């Protein structure tokens, strides 16, 4: 699900394109230090045949009959974190509005959707939906400890706009990231039954200075009717002028691309590369791969592993 082949499948736009991308997989170097590819091994044709049906997007439907294409989506913390280019382009042929997923937050899924998927496919987003929950805001306050497999702490479910406001830095950072790409997001508050109106108001208070629209959505409990307000907000957002901009140019060096992502998306002051990492980047450049976008493996924890930051 998160392999190099899945990422290739997500970015391929035809069977011919898929075959070319599979053929360029580098499995190592020869004694002269030159790259050895899947094409060099004569493995490309077999891989392409195995994926002959896998390249087709899967058509499903929601409980209310809305067509949905489910295709690819390698994990955002270690790959590109998006559904396939083919599914998006197929959907755009048949619908006025298409919502695609970029998982794992704006620091991973969105950045890679923009800098990798949009760059290679030519797709340009008209709007961004940034999903937030009261529970996530409280978690990022640093005041609660959640353990996998254990119930949410009862004190986290009590009405407390103050706990929501204490987690504002994380939401503000994600809003900044989306705006860095030239798009004003729609903030969708995914409402839980045990939320309180005062907590939703606290989220709206955080978002207000950015000019983004905030909508409470209850699609989990009420289906399409519960998401109608969000849908209207998204349609309105697509009509707003935007200035979509990639984070870095193709011509930047791999080092500079990594540094740009680290500084502008993760909030780092600088990057430090080990000797082996420096040599690896230099080798990729020498092999002619310096023009490619970068994907940095990153913990699933949002922005930082320390909520107190």
Order of helices and strands: HHEEHHEEHHEHHHEHEHHHH
Distance between the termini: 32 Å
State the share of residues found in helices, binned by percent: 40-55%
Number of helices: 14
Overview of the structural elements:
The chain has 309 residues and is mainly alpha-helical. The protein contains 14 helices and seven strands. A three-stranded parallel beta sheet has the order 5-6-7, sandwiched between helices. The protein has a two-stranded antiparallel sheet with strand order 1-2. Helix 10 links the parallel strand 6 and strand 7. Helix 2 crosses helix 4 and helix 6 packs parallel to helix 9. 28% of the residues are buried. The model has no long low-confidence stretch (mean pLDDT 93).
């Amino acid at each position: 699900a998160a392999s190099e082949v899945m990422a290739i499948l997500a970015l391929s736009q035809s069977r011919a394109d898929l075959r070319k991308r599979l053929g360029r997989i580098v499995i190592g170097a020869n004694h002269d230090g030159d790259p050895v590819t899947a094409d060099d091994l004569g493995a490309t044709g077999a891989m392409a045949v195995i994926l002959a049906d896998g390249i087709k997007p899967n058509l499903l439907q929601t409980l209310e009959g809305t067509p949905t294409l489910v295709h690819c989506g390698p994990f955002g913390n270690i790959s590109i974190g998006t559904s396939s280019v083919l599914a998006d382009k197929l959907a755009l042929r048949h619908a006025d509005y298409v919502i695609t997923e970029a998982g794992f937050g704006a620091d991973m899924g969105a950045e890679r959707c923009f800098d990798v998927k949009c760059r290679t496919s030519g797709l340009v987003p008209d709007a961004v939906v940034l999903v937030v929950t009261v529970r996530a805001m409280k978690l990022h306050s640093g005041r609660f400890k959640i353990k996998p497999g254990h119930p949410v702490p009862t004190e986290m479910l009590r009405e407390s706009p103050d706990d929501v406001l204490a987690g504002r830095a994380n939401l503000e950072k994600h809003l900044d990231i989306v705006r860095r790409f030239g798009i004003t997001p729609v903030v969708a508050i995914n409402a839980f039954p045990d939320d309180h109106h005062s907590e939703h108001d606290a989220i709206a208070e955080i978002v207000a200075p950015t000019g983004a629209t905030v909508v409470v959505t209850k699609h989990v409990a009420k289906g399409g009717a519960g998401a109608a307000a969000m849908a209207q907000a998204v349609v309105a957002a697509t009509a707003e002028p935007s200035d979509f901009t990639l984070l870095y140019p193709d011509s930047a060096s791999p080092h500079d691309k990594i540094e740009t992502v680290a500084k502008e998306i993760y909030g780092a002051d600088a990057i430090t590369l080990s000797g082996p990492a420096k040599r690896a980047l230099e080798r990729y450049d020498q092999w002619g791969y310096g023009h490619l976008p970068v994907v940095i493996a990153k913990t699933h924890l949002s922005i930082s592993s320390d909520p107190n930051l």
